[in-house]
Amino acid sequence: MIFISDTISLEDHEVEISAIRSQGSGGQNVNKVSSAIHLRFDINASSLSDLQKQLLLESKDRRINKDGVLIIKAQSFRTQEQNRLDAFERLQQFIVAATHVNKPRTPTKPSRSARRRRTDQKTQRGRTKSLRRKVDI
Asked: Domain containing 81: what range?
């Protein structure tokens, strides 16, 4: 069981993990050891609710392919276990960020006294600036 948040959790079989060789420099270790992790998460086949699936698919993330599969490649660390934890953490962050719904904003107006204070400040500032003008003799 993979816990994403208090209300969201995934089954282990919903996430497919495979070890691959890392890219980039690193000497012989890169060529011998499969320390990078490919994490595949099929959004459509997951146990998430329809709303959560829709929010995930509508997010404009380049890691989601046209089939609705999220692919995360973790290769920052030297060990496979650290990369696996990094991939799960990034999956968790992605799902939490994509399924977060902001509460609707209630429009408000400034109070009458706040409007009056603002105009008073503007007139005071105008008087201060008018004192800087050239004096007519």
From this structure: 2-99
